[in-house]
Design goal:
It is built from eight helices and five strands. Strands 3-4-5 form a three-stranded parallel beta sheet, with helices on both faces. The radius of gyration is 18 Å and the shape is globular. 35% of the residues are buried.
Length: 203
């Protein structure tokens, strides 16, 4: 499959997923987040094994120790991810909130109401916890997300995105609410920034 076609497929799936997401109430969204948190707990060994691959590759490339510290996952960091999810679950529904309202001289009432953005593309450095944090925040706010993490954290990011997708499937939601670009090719970053206007609402 060509690079362009691969990215377009991701974009098409994200657009459809964002429509599906708009029909999910806060309880459905929170149930997915709870399931994701549960999967983080029950898959610690798999997450740490994937992270070890990234650490090994980083060390073989002589990457700085400070970068490896940011990249490294352990039980404590996974527990912190789960704490963040629990905190976000407790947030009130951000969708459908009246932000302001006013009345026109002709008697017409106008309201400004919060709605999802749609599809969000996120490009970030090699911090695996961002994969969990961003996925959870986007989903809570009713947005589909396309993730492109730093290549040094490839295997860690991949398993975290897979666990979120598994939680979506378990709760009978569209898995493509969260998609991870499974390539280290820099081309995909450029294409996400320049060729996805039809599918991505904000980067």
């Amino acid at each position: 499959m060509s690079n362009n076609l691969y990215m377009k497929k991701i974009g098409e799936k994200a657009k459809l997923a964002s429509l599906h997401l708009s029909c999910l109430n806060i309880d459905r969204r929170n149930s997915v987040l709870k399931q994701f948190s549960k999967y983080l707990k029950t898959n610690v060994r798999s997450i740490l094994n994937s992270n070890k691959k990234d650490i090994y590759n980083a060390k073989s490339k002589k990457i700085k120790d400070s970068m490896i510290d940011r990249l490294k996952l352990n039980n404590k960091k996974i527990a912190q991810m789960r704490n963040s999810i629990e905190e976000i679950i407790r947030f009130k529904d951000p969708i459908g909130k009246t932000l302001s309202s006013w009345k026109r001289p002709n008697g017409l009432s106008i309201k400004r109401v919060s709605i999802p953005i749609g599809v969000i593309g996120v490009i970030y450095e090699s911090r695996p916890n961002v994969t969990a944090d961003v996925s959870v925040l986007c989903f809570k706010t009713g947005n589909a997300v396309i993730l492109r993490g730093g290549s040094e954290a490839f295997y860690s990011n991949k398993i975290l995105a897979e666990l979120f997708r598994r939680a979506l499937k378990k709760k009978k939601c569209d898995e493509n609410c969260v998609q991870f670009i499974e390539s280290k090719d820099r081309y995909h970053v450029d294409y996400l920034l320049s060729g996805m206007k039809k599918y991505v609402d904000v980067i």
